[in-house]
Automatic annotation (TrEMBL):
Residues 251-493 form the Helicase C-terminal domain. It comes from Cryoendolithus antarcticus. This is RNA helicase. It is found in: Nucleus. A motif (Q motif) lies at residues 27-55. InterPro entries: DEAD/DEAH_box_helicase_dom (IPR011545), DEAD_box_RNA_helicase (IPR050079), Helicase_ATP-bd (IPR014001), Helicase_C-like (IPR001650), P-loop_NTPase (IPR027417), RNA_helicase_DEAD_Q_motif (IPR014014). Its EC number is 3.6.4.13. Residues 1-26, 601-630 are annotated as: Disordered. It catalyses: ATP + H2O = ADP + phosphate + H(+).
């Protein structure tokens, strides 16, 4: 396009809209000033409009500002820092005559699962510029020599937990001298995972002038400590979207149910068999043993589920999440034992809204003082503290309620109420993501019903009412409301004998056997078959995580709901005829078999009839002249 000349025969500048806001110049991602190749990738992923945190954070990040952004889970925080960083790397490479190989960005995440998720996102949005941008996840389960070789090739982006990043920086393999960007995702969680020493080591190795970006779901004292540690030149720009989120129309419905300890299992049985909730469900329980108790209980009624906890190998956990997102499984039982461990090892003081240390300390004191309680009741009490978890092989860098991008989850079911309102907020953040509607259903045990059914009791339930009060106050402060789920428990009276049969079958020995068997099987799948699945990805469809454990004697009659047990309106929910068992011999089936045998005899099939059958003997039926000739 030709430009007009002024009086001095000099071309006049063209107004590019640089001084305008994105809404004034262009709409959508195109108005954020991103590289054309990134816009192609965004269009390929069918993302039409940026989220509020992306609209505010991307221009600031492109300008090189330090940013501290707080936005709810599922609001697009990952793309809010990925797109501007990739854009900046592409722009520097284009302007450099001889670009040198160097690590430009480090992205610190609290868990291995989130490291894999961020790396996948980088590869997705660099599909049109993958020759210029390469990302490496240094938390992959591989030989250290392989990780060292990948780092020596100087990828542009390195993703990992603070523990791994600090290790490779101290070994002088990961060069920090040329770093331009440092991102801490889920910033309020990294210190809770005991990464303070590693973060200090990383901060000391960073060059002056590096850009720092912090993403968090909450603004807490942990975040303030991180900003003071990394932002040495000044305070970051704070983006708090709380008011904007409160003004949005709620898409998450939150319900609570007051129930006894054994009635929790009765309710979840009714939910699945009567199809009261449809779609994918994540069930949060207190610890790993509780995970397998729930899995074995549901197996009694023919409901298959898969388990996710810190004891499983990381490859298996990642595969479970991936297959759950694809819709292979509909029921996921997650042990959120990490948030219990945090309460005993947290080093930073929490704010008043989320501070329930008095409750947690009281729970720990009571656990220590219990001597004369039956083993069934004390076995699943509370997850062991973090130090003990590392000794028993549980993964320190595991977290299921934070960061992981579960997709299209219809309901988050808090079978066991969490120990804090913070944990509750992050649990329910697994649903109602990316503008989709969702439901959060929580069971709580009142004080008068605690310990009334000892085999299914855990000490954590003793403080459900106090924790629920804090959760309710915290949610109301942010414009949300918890409502009572209207359900008549009397309609389930006919199911109680089935509940008793199922719970009686799920013993401590059965739970231990199921836990050991699954761990052994997942270890085999994770190590010996890893290379095979890399070479033959189509075989992954045969690898399932929801197979029946067979640790409990199955009772076939429990899988079906007889019509006489169904409450009013329940028959419509059950789409198939169930409960009918045929005791009489079906004479018609016998007649069919006899008729088939008779027809086969006439055709010459079956046993040779007293030497009269010659057509089936190839030697006697041989015709040397050919078929049809005599």
């Amino acid at each position: 396009m030709k430009r007009k000349l002024n009086a001095d025969d000099v071309p006049e500048p063209v107004d590019t809209g640089a001084g305008q806001t994105p809404a004034q110049s262009k709409t959508g991602f195109a108005g954020l000033g991103l590289d054309a190749r990134l816009l192609q990738a965004v269009a390929k992923e069918k993302l039409s409009e940026p989220t509020p945190v992306q609209v505010q954070a991307i221009p600031l990040a492109i300008a090189g500002k330090d940013i501290l952004a707080r936005a709810k889970t599922g609001s697009g925080k990952t793309l809010a820092y990925l797109l501007p960083i990739i854009h900046s790397i592409l722009r520097r490479k284009a302007s450099s005559v001889r670009p040198t190989k160097a690590v430009s960005a480090i992205m610190l995440v609290p868990t291995k699962e989130l490291a894999t998720q961020v790396t996948t996102a980088v590869k997705t949005f660099t599909s049109f510029c993958n020759q210029d941008i390469r990302a490496e996840n240094i938390n992959r389960k591989e030989d250290l020599a392989v990780t060292r070789a990948r780092l020596l090739e100087c990828p542009e982006i390195v993703v990992g937990t603070p523990n791994r990043v600090s290790q490779w920086i101290s070994n002088d393999v990961l060069k920090a001298a040329d770093l331009v960007h440092v991102v801490i995702d889920e910033a309020d969680l990294v210190l809770s995972y005991e990464y303070e020493d590693e973060l200090r080591s990383i901060a000391a190795a960073l060059p002056a002038g590096v850009q720092n970006i912090f993403m968090s779901a909450t603004l807490r004292t942990e975040v303030d400590k991180l900003t003071a540690l990394f932002c040495k030149s000044g305070s970051p720009v704070v983006l708090d979207l709380s008011e904007q989120e409160a003004a949005e129309k709620p898409i998450l419905s939150q319900y609570i149910v007051k129930t006894a300890e054994d009635e929790k299992f009765l309710l979840i049985y009714a939910i699945f068999k009567l199809q009261l909730i449809k779609g994918k469900i994540i069930i949060f329980v207190a610890d790993i043993d509780r995970c397998y108790r729930m899995k074995l209980f549901l197996e009694q009624f023919g409901t298959r589920s898969c388990v996710l906890n810190s004891e499983l190998p990381v490859n298996s956990r990642l595969h479970v999440v991936e297959e759950f997102n694809k819709g292979v499984y509909d029921v996921l039982i997650a042990a959120d034992e990490r948030e219990v461990a945090e309460s005993g090892s947290r080093k930073v003081k929490k704010s008043e809204d989320d501070d329930i240390e008095d409750i947690e300390d009281a729970a720990e004191e009571e656990i220590k003082g219990v001597d004369d309680v039956d083993v069934d009741a004390t076995k699943p009490v509370v997850a062991p503290p973090a130090k003990k978890q590392r000794k028993t092989g549980n993964d320190r860098e595991f977290g299921v309620s934070r960061g992981i991008d579960f997709r299209h989850v219809a309901c988050v079911l808090n079978f066991d109420l969490p120990t804090s309102s913070k944990s509750y907020t992050h649990r329910i953040g697994r649903t109602a993501r990316a503008g989709q509607k969702g439901m959060a259903l929580s069971f709580y045990v009142p004080a008068e019903l605690f310990r009334k059914h000892r085999p299914t009791s855990i000490l954590q339930c003793q403080y459900d009412e106090k924790v629920l009060a804090r959760i309710t106050a915290h949610q109301e402060k942010h414009g949300a409301k918890l409502e009572e789920w209207q359900f008549d428990m009397e309609k389930l009276t006919g199911f109680r004998y089935r509940l008793t049969d199922a719970l009686r079958a799920v013993t401590r020995i059965a739970i231990r056997e199921a836990r050991t068997k699954e761990l052994r099987q997942e270890l085999i799948n994770s190590t010996k078959l890893a290379r095979h699945f890399e070479e033959h990805p189509e075989d992954l469809r045969h690898l399932r995580h929801d197979t029946e454990s067979h640790a409990v004697r199955l009772q076939p009659h429990l899988k079906h709901v007889p019509e006489y047990l169904l409450p009013s309106g329940g028959k419509a929910a059950v789409q198939q005829d169930v409960g009918f068992v045929e005791f009489r011999k079906d004479e018609r089936a016998g007649n069919k078999i006899r008729k088939a045998r008779e027809v086969n005899r006439k055709r010459g099939k079956g046993a040779i009839m007293k030497g009269k059958r010659t057509a089936g003997d190839p030697l006697k039926s041989l015709n040397a002249r050919g078929r049809g000739k005599k």
